[in-house]
Amino acid sequence: MTFTNAPVTRLLVLGLVSASIGASMLDVKHYFYISIDTHLWKYRQFWRLLAYQLCYTNSTEVLFSAISLYNLRVVERMWGPRKYASFLLVSSLLTAIIPPMIMVVLRPFSAGFFNYMPAGPTPIIFAILAQYHSMVPHVYKYRVAASQNSQANESSGVTLSDKSYQYAIAIHLSLLQWPGSILGAFVGWVVGNAWRGGVMPASLISWRLPGWMVGLSSHRRSAEFEGLRRRLEGENGPVTGASSGVQSEGQQAERRRTMGQQIVDQFREAL
């Protein structure tokens, strides 16, 4: 796999896989999901709101989430690592609180059906997927026919695009531990579209992490600008050099002319 120009995605995938493997090996997976009545109501373990998106508790979810994050790295390439990391942080904070709070409201009316919030950053993945859906155009479309009869109606069948497989992987991820995973995916999709549509406060949308946190130091930026300036000068160098050469030759010829020749030339122009 290649993560060229996507350092945040690389860190996210490696961290998610490592945390999931570590939680399984250390037998601490029970700390990374939320049971509304037990963890929030009875024991007041509100720290789980910030912990449940750090890893997954089964290998299937780890696989599909890693594939999804890798395929969505194009969003980071279009935004840059600083904006992308800022978006991830804001989205993670919102999706950490909103889905469990919705479950707290729905649980009394659902006979305990909405009581389990599974572990994993599925809401964050769907927030990124909302940006992918809006920003990245499809390259081609194809139709899956419902019948082998060539004389069938052209409107029959399903029209898909090259982006459909990405949506299929994400939807499958959201169905693995429903209804909690479906609720998290829905909230993540809403948060992603709220960010893009300007529904959130402008301070959240415009906020950015410090550049050094994603490896963008002021020295590096100045070096990039210096390299750009040198490339531009290199492109304009031959023309500038030629003009300066002509100008210097003219100045040298002017210096070689004597004062008498200059006076004679002035009288010629006057006559």
Q: Which secondary-structure class do the elements indicate?
A: mainly alpha
Biggest sheet layout: 2 strands, antiparallel
Q: Helix amount, in percent?
A: 55-70%
For the secondary structure, the number of strands is 4
Description:
The protein is mainly alpha-helical and 271 residues long. Helix content is 65%, strand content 4%. The chain contains twelve helices and four strands; from the N terminus they run H-E-H-H-H-H-H-E-H-E-E-H-H-H-H-H. The chain has a two-stranded antiparallel ribbon. A two-stranded antiparallel sheet has the order 3-4. The longest helix is centred in the C-terminal third of the chain and has 39 residues, at 218-256. Mean pLDDT is 84; it is low at 239-247.
Tags for this model:
271 residues; two-stranded antiparallel ribbon; globular
Task: Please sum up the structure shown.
This protein has 271 residues and is mostly helical.
List the helices and strands and how they pair.
Elements: H1 7-25, E1 34-35, H2 36-42, H3 48-51, H4 59-71, H5 73-79, H6 81-106, E2 116-117, H7 122-135, E3 141-144, E4 158-161, H8 164-174, H9 180-197, H10 202-206, H11 218-256, H12 259-270
Antiparallel strand pairs: 1-2, 3-4
Helix pairs in contact: 1-4, 4-8, 5-6, 6-7, 6-9, 7-8, 7-9
